[in-house]
């Protein structure tokens, strides 16, 4: 009986306890959405807890009145989450603290962020990939202070951006940084962003000097994803994008153009006979009154007929990874298809990459990367997409129709019809395959010793097939022949093969408070370039193959070149108590591009750091100052990017001579050789600090640097009568100095996580010395490289008296013309503006570059808003961009705001024909515009599906997002043009517009 009573009491007690607890289940994910294994989960204020399994799941009983649980993980700290009224929670950890223990990829290894002594910026691949842009270079814009990224075009396959690190590092010997993908040099714009783990940028000489002569313009280190121990993880990403131009100038239709043309003749004082005036006025009346009939009247909108309003872009990516302690693997495959704004313009790319790590023995690891990329670029048979777009802007609306009534293509301008160029002139297809094999064997025979051997093989090809098919034209029923005059086929092939071998030994020893690491290595690389091309004309029956055509028109050419480099390098690190830091590096490079005596160059660096926050006198403020480090560095770098044979005499075997009244073919020296040319060198001093405050929620980085370039490689100045192209010489010095800062704040309010990151930098460039006379103002001592030089202006000439009593550029000046200022009164004629009156007008390189990235996460939603801009930049525009009627072109609507006696504050001078307007459009401050801008570069809104949905599927995660790129721009730049683009071309102002994009995408994890 007593046993029964005891049993009954125990059951009642169990029921009471059960009534006071509840079951809670959940899944813990890392910031990227992958399951987090081994995370600790506990009820707030107790030790009652558990840990997550291999799938990131947990299950436990908690008190019924418990409202909060704490989740802890080493990399992300401890975070609290509400469980009130919930039986299941999905938890995504956030890095709300700026962790100084974060590992940063540096040259030939990694280092803790806290112990870095150089200027290194890093961004995670996941953050870049959120932007859903085609090229990795464009995704980097605004993310790292001191890195200038400018996108110059929106053309498919050519919409990558230029990258400059800390200004212009040279005049002739290359400006782009060294880009290494897993240690192998590659094209940054062809990298699959889905495969990128992180991007590090080595900005100062101390960080980059171990790469020696290859690193004079900085180094970009791209690390791809590798497999991790655990079950197979699979992800699938896809997005579709609608592309539309950010900005395009508006062109005049026929009536307005004819009226502007008549006004220009009157303004120029050109006498128009009465019958011709009446005819012109009747044409204007008819254009305004009647619709075009494409016979008597043309009013062709070439712009809308040629340029599409939108173009489609799609991208698909598939990735898998996994492994165990002995073997790990990661693989990605992606396919891109990008349409263009005109017909016959498309770019496709396929990327495949497989990374593996295998432990052959516990002390021996074999790592392997195999990647294959192939791209196909399609453009029209004649004229580039950029040229066709610009033809459609300046083509006169009165010339012809796009297609005439008889079915032939409209004659356009002497047969040149931009719509026919795009749709009917043939095609240019370029296929570019690339194969990379990279193998590394790493041995650790004893503790702290690592021996590494690496071999890589990279082959890139370019195979082009250019087919020109003439189209037939007419005008008002009269057949006018084919354009261009003949057909043609040209095939090209080029190949670069690069072999790379590296051997390296490193030894790291931990003595307790003191830590040292010594690294020494050697590497050899060889590059072989070969090319071939052939062409024919006059094909029959549209059989466009090289084995057809007229043999008399056949041409062929080919060539080969190679260069090699051998290097020895070393690095020594010393760290005392993570407080006092020292690093020294050196590299000894030998290049085949120089002659004996100049082949070898030595490039050393030293750097030191002091973690002030670890000193005892900082303990009283450690709640406010979490981390504070001072660092300084000095280093020397070299540059040898000047072509393969600068020391050798160049002989042209196809040089033409006039002998005995006939043209004969012979040979001739065409370029001056310089056997004494040697390394361009740069030395850089850097002072910086890294700090974090308020329990590491606010982080600040600041750097100040001075970079002096000497023995600068330039073209040797020669008088024109020498008859040779200039060779290379070491002819000048230049300096870059500037500062850069980065601020990051991460916070959390309840379940709302947010982050703010801002970057700001400025660089000042100055040519400090020229070793001899240099006739080009692009290099002027005391001013920036490629500075703009021209005349100062003072509005417009008001009337004839103003013209007569003021200096002028020529005697053709008249009221309404641009009025110039005489800056050099010592000239021979005080009334004529001359070359000596030109002054410095500004620097086209961006200054005060900034970026602001705002992130937020709440529940299953995530939001990213990114602003980017330039505070100061000068841009000189010429050609059709500013000059009405230039080269027989149409006008833009903003050019109608021209001077008249009643409109003396007009944007443009008096409207006159092109032949009369030359004085108004020389280089002057009138046409140097403010290129500063603020742009909403990117917005991403995402939603991750809840666990309740995922449980009903086989998915581990699903996220959908909307994204916009280049959404709006605030600028005072020329109407219809983009302030980010560097305009140029034979007509001036030519461009392929940057794209504004709207994207829908999805990500699935299995």
If you had to describe this structure to a student in words, what would you say it looks like?
This protein is mainly beta. Among the domains are: 18-92, Immunoglobulin-like (Sandwich); 103-240, Ferric Hydroxamate Uptake Protein, Chain A, domain 1, CATH 2.170.130.10; 254-298, no CATH class. The chain is built from eleven helices and 51 strands. It has a 22-stranded antiparallel beta barrel. A five-stranded mixed sheet has the order 10-15-16-13-14. Helix 5 packs antiparallel against helix 6 and helix 8 runs antiparallel to helix 9. The longest helix is centred in the N-terminal third of the chain and has 18 residues, at 2-19. 38% of the residues are buried.
From the structure above, extract its key features.
five-stranded mixed beta sheet, 51 strands, Immunoglobulin-like, mainly beta, Ferric Hydroxamate Uptake Protein, Chain A, domain 1, 9% helix, 22-stranded antiparallel beta barrel, 1006 residues
Entry summary:
The chain has 1006 residues and is mainly beta. Helix content is 9%, strand content 49%.
SSE order and pairing:
Layout: H1 2-19, E1 21-29, E2 40-43, E3 49-51, E4 57-63, E5 68-73, E6 77-82, E7 88-92, E8 103-106, E9 109-112, E10 120-124, H2 125-129, H3 136-139, E11 147-151, E12 161-165, E13 178-181, E14 184-185, E15 196-202, H4 205-208, E16 219-224, E17 230-245, H5 254-267, H6 274-289, H7 302-306, E18 311-323, E19 327-339, E20 346-361, E21 364-380, H8 385-394, E22 409-410, H9 418-424, E23 426-443, E24 449-468, E25 471-475, E26 478-483, E27 488-510, E28 514-537, E29 550-576, E30 580-591, E31 600-611, E32 625-639, E33 650-659, E34 662-671, E35 680-693, E36 698-710, E37 713-715, E38 728-730, E39 732-749, E40 752-770, E41 788-790, E42 793-796, H10 800-804, E43 818-820, E44 839-842, E45 847-858, E46 861-872, E47 874-876, E48 928-930, E49 933-944, H11 947-950, E50 957-971, E51 995-1005
Parallel strand pairs: 1-7, 13-16, 22-25
Antiparallel strand pairs: 1-4, 2-3, 2-5, 5-6, 8-9, 10-15, 11-12, 13-14, 15-16, 17-18, 17-51, 18-19, 19-20, 20-21, 21-23, 23-24, 24-27, 25-26, 27-28, 28-29, 29-30, 30-31, 31-32, 32-35, 33-34, 35-36, 36-39, 37-38, 39-40, 40-45, 41-44, 42-43, 45-46, 46-49, 47-48, 49-50, 50-51
């Amino acid at each position: 009986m007593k046993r029964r009573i005891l049993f009954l009491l125990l059951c009642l007690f169990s029921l009471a306890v059960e009534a006071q607890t509840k079951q809670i289940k959940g899944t813990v994910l890392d910031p990227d959405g992958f399951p987090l294994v081994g995370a600790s989960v506990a009820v707030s204020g107790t030790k009652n807890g558990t840990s997550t399994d291999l799938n990131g799941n947990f299950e436990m009983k908690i008190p019924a009145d418990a409202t909060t649980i704490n989740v802890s993980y080493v990399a992300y700290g401890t975070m609290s989450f509400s469980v009130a009224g919930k039986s299941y929670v999905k938890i995504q950890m956030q890095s709300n603290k700026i962790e100084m223990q974060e590992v940063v990829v540096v040259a030939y290894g990694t280092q803790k962020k806290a112990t870095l002594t150089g200027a290194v910026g890093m961004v995670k691949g996941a953050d870049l990939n959120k932007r859903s842009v085609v090229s990795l270079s464009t995704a980097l814009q605004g993310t790292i202070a001191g890195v200038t990224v400018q996108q110059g075009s929106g053309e498919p396959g050519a919409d990558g951006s230029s990258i400059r690190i800390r200004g212009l590092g040279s005049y002739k010997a290359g400006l782009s940084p060294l880009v290494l993908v897993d240690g192998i040099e590659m094209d940054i714009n062809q990298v699959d962003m889905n495969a990128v783990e992180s991007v590090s940028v080595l900005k100062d000489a101390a960080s980059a000097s171990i790469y020696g002569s290859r690193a004079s313009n900085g180094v970009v280190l791209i690390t791809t994803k590798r497999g991790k121990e655990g079950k197979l993880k699979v992800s699938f990403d896809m997005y579709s994008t609608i592309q539309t131009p950010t900005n395009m100038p508006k062109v005049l239709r026929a009536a307005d153009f004819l009226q502007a043309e008549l006004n220009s003749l009157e303004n120029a004082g050109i006498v128009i006979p009465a019958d011709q005036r009446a005819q012109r006025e009747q044409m204007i009346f008819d254009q305004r009154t009647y619709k075009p009939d494409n016979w008597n009247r043309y009013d062709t909108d070439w712009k809308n007929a040629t340029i599409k309003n939108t173009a489609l872009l799609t991208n698909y990516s598939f990735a898998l990874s996994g492994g165990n302690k002995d073997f790990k693997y990661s693989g990605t495959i992606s396919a891109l298809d990008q349409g263009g704004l005109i017909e016959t313009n498309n770019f496709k790319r396929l990327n495949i990459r497989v990374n593996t790590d295998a432990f052959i023995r516990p002390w021996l690891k074999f790592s392997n990367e195999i990647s294959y990329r192939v791209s196909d670029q399609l453009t029209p048979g004649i004229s580039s997409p950029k040229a066709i777009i610009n033809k459609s802007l300046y083509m006169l609306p009165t010339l012809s129709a796009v297609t005439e009534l008889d079915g032939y293509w409209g004659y356009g301008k002497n047969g040149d019809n931009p719509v026919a160029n795009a749709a009917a002139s043939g095609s240019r297809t370029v296929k570019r395959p690339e194969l990379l094999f990279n193998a590394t064997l790493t041995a650790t025979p004893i503790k702290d010793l690592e021996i590494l051997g690496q071999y890589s093989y990279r082959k890139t090809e370019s195979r082009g097939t250019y087919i020109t098919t003439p189209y037939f034209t007419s005008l008002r029923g009269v057949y006018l022949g084919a354009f261009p005059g003949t057909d043609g086929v040209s095939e090209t092939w080029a190949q670069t093969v690069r072999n790379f071998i590296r051997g390296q030994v490193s030894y790291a020893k931990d003595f307790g408070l003191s830590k040292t690491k010594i690294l020494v290595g050697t590497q050899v690389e060889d590059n072989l370039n070969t090319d071939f091309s052939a062409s024919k004309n006059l094909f029959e029956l549209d059989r466009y193959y090289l084995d057809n055509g007229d043999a008399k028109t056949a041409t062929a050419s080919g060539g080969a070149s190679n260069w090699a480099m051998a290097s020895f390098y070393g690095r020594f690190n010393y760290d005392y108590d993570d407080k006092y830091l020292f690093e020294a590096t050196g590299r000894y490079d030998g290049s085949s591009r120089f002659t004996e005596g100049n082949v070898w160059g030595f490039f050393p660096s030293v750097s030191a750091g002091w973690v002030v926050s670890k000193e005892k006198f900082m303990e009283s403020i450690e709640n406010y100052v979490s981390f504070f480090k001072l660092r300084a560095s000095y280093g020397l770098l070299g540059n040898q990017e000047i072509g393969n044979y600068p020391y050798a005499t160049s002989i042209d075997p196809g040089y033409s001579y006039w002998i005995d009244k006939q043209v004969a073919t012979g040979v001739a020296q065409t370029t001056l050789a310089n056997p004494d040319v040697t390394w361009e060198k740069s030395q850089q001093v850097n002072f910086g600090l890294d700090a974090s405050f308020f329990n590491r929620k606010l982080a600040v980085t600041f750097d100040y640097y001075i970079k002096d370039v000497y023995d600068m490689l330039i073209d040797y100045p020669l008088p024109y009568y020498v008859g040779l192209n200039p060779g290379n010489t070491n002819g000048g010095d230049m300096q870059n100095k500037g500062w850069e800062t980065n601020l990051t704040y991460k916070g959390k309010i309840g379940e709302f996580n947010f982050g703010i990151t801002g970057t700001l930098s400025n660089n000042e460039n100055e040519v400090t010395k020229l070793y001899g006379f240099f006739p080009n103002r692009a290099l002027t001592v005391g001013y920036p490289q490629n500075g703009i030089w021209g005349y100062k202006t003072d509005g417009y000439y008001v009337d004839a008296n103003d013209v007569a009593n003021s200096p002028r550029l020529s005697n053709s000046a008249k009221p309404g013309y641009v009025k110039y200022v005489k800056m050099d009164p010592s000239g021979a004629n005080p009334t004529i503006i001359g070359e000596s009156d030109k002054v410095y007008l500004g620097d086209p390189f961006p200054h005060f570059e900034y970026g602001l990235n705002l992130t937020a996460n709440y529940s299953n939603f995530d939001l990213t808003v990114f602003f980017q801009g330039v505070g100061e930049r000068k841009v000189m525009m010429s050609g059709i961009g500013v000059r009405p009627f230039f080269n027989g072109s149409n006008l833009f609507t903003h050019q109608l705001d021209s001077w008249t006696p009643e409109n003396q504050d007009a944007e443009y001078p008096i409207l006159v024909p092109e032949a009369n307007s030359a004085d108004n459009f020389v280089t002057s401050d009138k046409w140097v515009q403010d290129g500063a801008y603020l742009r909403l570069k990117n917005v991403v809104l995402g939603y991750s599906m809840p666990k309740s949905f995922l449980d009903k599927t086989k998915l581990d995660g699903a996220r959908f997002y909307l994204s916009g790129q280049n959404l709006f721009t605030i600028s005072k730049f020329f109407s219809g043009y983009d302030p980010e683009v560097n305009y140029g071309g034979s007509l001036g102002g030519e461009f392929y517009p940057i794209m504004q994009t709207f994207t829908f995408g999805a990500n699935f994890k299995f």
